[in-house]
Amino acid sequence: VGDKVEVNFLGIWHACTISQVSSDGRTCTVKYHEGGEEESEVDIATRVRPTAAKKGKVDQAQKGKEVASRVQAATAPEPTSGARGRKNGPPPKEEKVELVHVEAGERVEVDILGVWQIAMVLDVSDDGTTCEVRLRDGSGVESDVDIASRVRKLLVTWLRPGMKVDIESEGKWWSTRVLWVDPGGRMCTAQYDDDEVIEQHISIDDRVRRTKTTEQEFADSRIPFDSLVIGQELKGKVTTVREFAIFVDVNTEIDGFVPRHLASAGWVPDIRGVVKTGEEVTVWISKIGGIEGNRKLEISLVDSKVRKSSGGKNKGIKDVSGFIGVDDKQWFKGTIRDIRTFGMFVEVSSPKPECPSIDGVVHISQIADKLIKSLNAEGFRIGQTVDVRVTKVDTTKHTLNLSMLPIPQES
């Protein structure tokens, strides 16, 4: 109580003061500095963060369990009540900002009252020093934004939600699963494997590292979006809980979202009490939509609320039975159907005539015995014929893993 924090309201972070904290440390009541209005039952884990001006550490040893739980989510620089005293990482450290070149139509980060927010550049002044931007949530347009002090480029990060990575905490590296990645490419939220503690505001550059199997395990776990079908059952992990929806990583290219009416069999006043971040859940697909680059996946926590279907433009669950038991030394002719940053989809015909041909995934690490940065730069094109081997058949996820690497020599 009394802490100065920032609260997310409709995508905008507002300066507030905490006036009350619930006994379980999960929600609080805040008073907005602008306007003086109060809001109760604010979810600390998803809507509260420290102010940009907050600095230093607070010794938690003398504070009770309730306060330590609150601090873990609400005051990032301070130690949490975790078993090893992990810290909720601080917001991005202050950077020396230099003039950057931006263009109309480009997505950037803009400093709004000390908080970096995603925005679209609408126009740039003739001398390149100021620009006009629209915030991502559509809340407004601002002109004459000083580029040197208030605009920075989005970082392109290799990190993706669902990846298994190591995170440094107090001099040690811990195995974790990434739940959320900052759109700006600078921070992430992750859950520790050993005790399931969730940590926010983790600096990707400073504290996250790949393991030897990060990319391969991530590629193996992904379900091709085009193989999804309405009514399909999926397992996933909750990444974010909001007032209006629950977001779940279901091992495809985007998180599925559970709207309020699909979160429970009956009406609930607040869906934030239905599940919690990091929880494993079973969901059913209720809607599939969007286009490449803007997919949408609506899911339900209640099976009975989903209309079962195998039709529509989706291909449905793929039949991988024709490849079960195939020798991984057998070569097949395949046709490239899609090229992505992580690899490509190759259509192969089943050795069993009665089974259909299906698309398999060739991860970028399985294409050649060298580092490949761009498949297009290497000359690969959609429609091209390539030789592939089947390395894994997953009958649960209905996926096929392929390789173009030479057959390993037996020692």
Could you give a short description of this structure?
The protein is 7% helix and 40% strand.
Model description:
The chain has 411 residues and is mainly β. Helix content is 7%, strand content 40%. The protein is built from 5 helices and 25 strands. The strands form 5 sheets. A 5-stranded antiparallel sheet has the order 4-3-2-1-5. It starts with a strand and ends in an 8-residue tail after the last strand. About 13% of the residues have low confidence.
- Percent strand: 35-45%
Count the beta strands: 25
Give the % helix. under 10%
Number of helices: 5
Q: Based on Cα principal axes, name the global outline.
A: globular
Mean pLDDT: 78
Strand order within the widest beta sheet: 4-3-2-1-5
Poorly predicted spans? 52-97, 309-316
- For the termini, the CA-CA separation is 66 Å
Q: Helix and strand string, N-terminal first?
A: EEEEHEHEEEEHEEEEEHEHEEEEEEEEEE
Secondary structure class reads: mainly beta
Report the C-alpha radius of gyration, rounded. Answer: 24 Å
Sheet bearing the most strands, described? Answer: 5 strands, antiparallel
Keywords for this entry:
five-stranded antiparallel beta sheet; mainly beta; 25 strands; 411 residues
Topology:
Elements: E1 4-9, E2 12-21, E3 27-32, E4 38-43, H1 44-47, E5 48-50, H2 65-74, E6 107-112, E7 115-124, E8 130-135, E9 141-146, H3 147-150, E10 151-153, E11 164-169, E12 172-181, E13 187-192, E14 198-203, H4 204-207, E15 208-209, H5 214-221, E16 233-241, E17 245-249, E18 256-259, E19 280-291, E20 294-300, E21 331-339, E22 343-348, E23 358-363, E24 385-394, E25 399-403
Parallel strand pairs: 23-25
Antiparallel strand pairs: 1-2, 1-5, 2-3, 3-4, 6-7, 6-10, 7-8, 8-9, 11-12, 11-15, 12-13, 13-14, 16-17, 16-19, 17-18, 19-20, 21-22, 21-24, 22-23, 24-25
